[in-house]
Write a structure and sequence with these properties.
By secondary structure, the chain is α+β, with helices and mostly antiparallel strands. The protein is built from 10 helices and 8 strands. It has a single domain, classed as Outer membrane efflux proteins (OEP), CATH 1.20.1600.
Length: 438
């Protein structure tokens, strides 16, 4: 038993040393660091860059295309002669050309494709902001979880100190011959259990810190710790007020609305399949031709004599494309309906989450305020029982029951307090994300 006590004591001292040398982080610094290092956010930022490339590619479609070609061919056996007859002759030819194609009118497709690309970039940016909001909310919740674990550890350490004090007091009374030695064993057992609670609570702190450090993507958690928040009891905003603000600030909802605009742009883009297109074409080229057994003009002479240029316009009028354009329009309209349903679903979930957080915050605050009076009564009851126990008028079981009631009441108050803080911050986050980090 004594060896077990030493192990618990060493574990507790190690935890205290670990926490005592820690570098403290504020809530705002944790959120900022997590946002700057989150992998999901960085992936979404790559989507933005990809959207910018799509926009650049769309703008480049307005530029002309220039192609050059060079070919060399050899023909053995029967071949076409200059008299347009076939004979068994070996021939060779060299040809080159440069062509230009300039789109003059593309049925507004590229203009609308460019609009869709701009709308998509805006949606990608909102997705990035939504991911940042999600990271911030997770960090806030885990930050408060660490503070909660610290409060529980403080209460557990207070109980352990009280039990150790009773053990020391009992030893003095045994030496004075006032009580039997058997009583000491019960107190030492209780003290050991209380020290075990301290070790467990300190381990919960380390676990919560590890989870928080993981959200921050820290490479090492050595010396990592957080600073407490303000002791002020923040007010709970009304759900109607929060929801009204969230409709204009919730980036997930704004992204869903932007998705509707993107779908509308795709509908307009699909309709361009019915519009004619016009392009300008121009080119130059020449060739060199030889026939075995026949005298041919020199390479330079043929290239000059065979040099040719051309200009032309090409008009494409869609008449029937197998209903491809019609089906593309219908598909784009279905995508718009899907996007509108996503907006409706997000608004519904947002309302539900806000109302739920509000009622949970109100209930936790009521429990927290009520538990203050309960804790005061439990403290008075414990002090009275402790005094009777010291005078020998209360049993060891009475004393332990009163102490456990006090500990449970204090833990319940801590739980209510931090649940209240978490729910209140969630509401504040929906109405003003930046203010919830203070």
């Amino acid at each position: 038993m004594k060896a077990f006590h030493r192990i618990l004591a060493v574990g507790a001292m190690t935890t205290v040393a670990f926490l005592g040398q820690a570098e403290t982080w504020s809530l705002d610094s944790c959120v900022a660091y997590a946002i700057g290092n989150n992998i999901d956010i960085r992936q979404r930022e790559l989507n933005v860059k990809n959207g910018e490339l799509d926009l650049t590619e769309t703008k480049d479609r307005f530029l002309p295309s220039v192609d050059g070609s060079l070919s060399q061919s050899f023909n053995f056996g029967r071949g076409l002669t200059s008299e347009n007859t076939y004979a068994n002759r070996n021939t060779s030819s060299t040809q080159w050309s440069v062509g230009l194609n300039l789109p003059l009118f593309q049925g507004l497709a590229e203009y609308r494709r460019m609009d869709v690309a701009k709308l998509s970039i805006r949606q990608y940016l909102l997705d990035v902001d939504a991911a940042k909001d999600n990271v911030a909310l997770n960090v806030i919740s885990q930050y408060l979880q660490v503070l909660y674990c610290k409060e529980v550890a403080r209460s557990a350490r207070s109980q352990a100190e009280l039990s150790q004090f009773e053990v020391e007091r009992q030893k003095v009374m045994i030496e004075a011959g006032r009580v039997a030695e058997a009583t000491l064993y019960d107190l030492e057992s209780v003290a050991a259990q209380d020290r075990l609670q301290v070790v467990t609570a300190d381990n919960d702190i380390r676990t919560a810190l590890v989870n928080l450090a993981n959200l921050l993507h820290l490479k090492s958690i050595e010396g990592f710790d957080i600073s407490p928040l303000s002791d002020a009891e923040p007010p709970i905003p009304s759900p109607e007020q929060v929801y009204s603000s969230a409709l204009g600030t919730d980036n997930t909802l704004l992204s869903a609305r932007q998705g509707v605009r993107v779908a509308e742009g795709n509908i307009s883009l699909a309709k361009t399949g019915y519009i004619p297109t016009l392009s300008f074409n121009a080119g130059i080229g020449s060739s060199y031709y030889t026939v075995a057994g026949w005298d041919s003009e020199s390479f330079g002479t043929q290239m000059r004599n065979n040099f040719a240029t051309y200009l032309g316009f090409s008009l494409r009028v869609p008449i029937f494309d197998g209903f491809n354009t019609r089906n593309s329009i219908r598909r784009a309209k279905l995508q718009k309906l899907t996007a509108e349903l996503q907006v409706e679903d997000r608004e519904s979930n947002l309302w539900k989450d806000i109302r739920l957080a509000y009622y949970q915050a109100v209930g936790a605050r009521e429990r927290y305020l009520t538990s203050g009076e309960t804790l005061e009564k439990a403290q008075l009851s414990f002090e009275a029982t402790q005094e009777r126990f010291n005078l020998g008028r209360a049993t060891q079981a009475d004393y332990e029951q009163a102490k456990n009631n006090l500990f449970k009441t204090e833990i319940a108050r801590i739980q209510a307090h931090y649940e209240y803080l978490i729910r209140q911050r969630i509401l504040l986050f929906y109405s003003n994300p930046s203010a919830s980090r203070k």
